Amino acid sequence: MDTSDLRIALFSGNYNYVRDGANQALNRLVGYLLGQGAAVRVYAPEVEEPAFPATGDLFGVPSLAIPGRSEYRVPMALSRRVRSDLDKFAPNVVHVSSPDPVAHRAVSWARSRKLPVLASVHTRFETYPRYYNMSFLEPILEASLRRFYRRCDALVAPSESMAQVLRDQRMNYDVSIWSRGVDREIFNSGRRDLAWRRSLGIADDDIAIGFLGRLVMEKGLDVFSDTMDELQRSGVQHKVLVIGEGPARAWFEARIPHAVFAGFQAGADLGRAVASMDVLFNPSITETFGNVTLEAMACGLPVVAAAATGSESLVDDGRSGRLIRPGAIHQFSEALRAYVERPELRVEHGRAGELRSQNFAWDRINQAVADTYLRLIRQKHAATKAKVR
After folding, report:
1. Residue 266 Cα distances to 47, 210, 269, 320, angstroms
2. Domain boundaries of the chain, sorted by first residue
3. 75: which strand partners?
4. In CA terms, which of 63, 320, 340, 369 is 20 to 30 Å from 40?
5. Residue 379 CA: distances (Å) to CA of 96, 170, 195, 268, 385
6. Residue among 258, 253, 311, 302 nearest 280 (CA)
7. Which superfamily is assigned to 189-357 in CATH?
8. How far apart are CA 233 and CA 239, in angstroms?
9. pLDDT of 126 above 60
10. Residue 304 near residue 330 (C-beta atoms within 8 A)
11. Across-strand partners of 208?
């Protein structure tokens, strides 16, 4: 059996209606699998105006908008229509990518048919309550996630640091790595564009500290803005360049009024925006990988990041950037100050990061997931035969 024999039913809570790193990775995976001759059917919420076209066959599932975050939807039911389509498609492996109600039911459906289930972990959902003054919910959410992931045959995580967190949390003990790649056609130091910077009011000799990502509180916007305050109090001359959109934009603009907000960027424009920064500051602790960290590294930027899952598997502290204890405002500020005031350090660490980014090739990374599917199918067949005997 090889990749061309795979028939994968993929369940996603957000396959293409809001753009983020997780669903772009899923679309790349599907594109790769289809190119290898596999059959893939995606089950996810559909909207009238998605953020980008879906890769492969997308079958809509019933969903509801999340109160207060209406841009996101929760898949609610494995309806009779969906079940009928699943039966017709006849997958030999099921992949769930978010712990939502439909994914729970998809796992039950697969288990009833003795099909292997792979779960991919894309974000640290258990940390989200911290950003909405509901930290008391974290252990409850973690226990709920544990029940879900233990019903799956295996997990894939995008970094070894995240895989270890999952093992420590006893989510599952079969955890392998599905890393992330970077498109070096888009993200490279040659994309730097001083004219574009000038059009935003950033002079050639200004040091631009960049934020890249969706503008939501769980990305560490409070830590970012507190750190910028500390830099200003210390008299460190810098500019702030924010790339991204999201529901917290108004809050973020009010909090750092002197920042340049360039809005959402995609494709070559995104590569230009990232390469036109001087250093990336990524204080988030919710990512399981840190796509923005890798993209900045590919553009030759040093990265100052929280020492948390994701970035700590990418940044070599003291060689390609700095890893700082989450929430440590003064330490973040001092790390950024060094890059602002020492151009030779920016160049040295930026080059080291760019060299490290060359290890992340998409085809090799996605084949690792295909190999995991094949392993789980073999294991399930072997276990079934053993029971029959």
Report:
1. 20, 16, 6, 25
2. 3-181+361-388, 189-357
3. 63
4. 63
5. 18, 21, 57, 43, 10
6. 302
7. Glycogen Phosphorylase B; (3.40.50.2000)
8. 14
9. no
10. no
11. 239
pLDDT tens per residue, range 361-372: 888 899 999 999
Answer yes or no: is pLDDT of 389 > 80. no
Q: What is the 3-state secondary structure (H, E, C) of 148-216?
A: HHHCCCEEEECCHHHHHHHHHCCCCCCEEECCCCCCCCCCCHHHCCHHHHHHCCCCCCCCEEEEECCCC
pTM confidence score = 0.73
Asked whether the domain spanning 189-357 has the same topology as the one spanning 3-181+361-388, the reply is yes
In DSSP terms, which residues pair with 96 in a beta bridge? 11, 119
**3-181+361-388 CATH pick, 3.40.50.2000, 3.30.70.980, 3.40.50.800, 1.10.10.10:** 3.40.50.2000
Lookup: tokens for 174 = 């079969």
pLDDT of 129 > 60? The answer is no
Q: Are the C-beta atoms of residues 303 and 321 closer than 8 Å to each other?
A: yes
3-class DSSP state for residue 56? coil
Enumerate residues 6+ apart whose C-beta is below 8 A from 151: 107, 108, 111, 117
Closest of 371, 244, 260 to residue 295, by C-alpha: 244
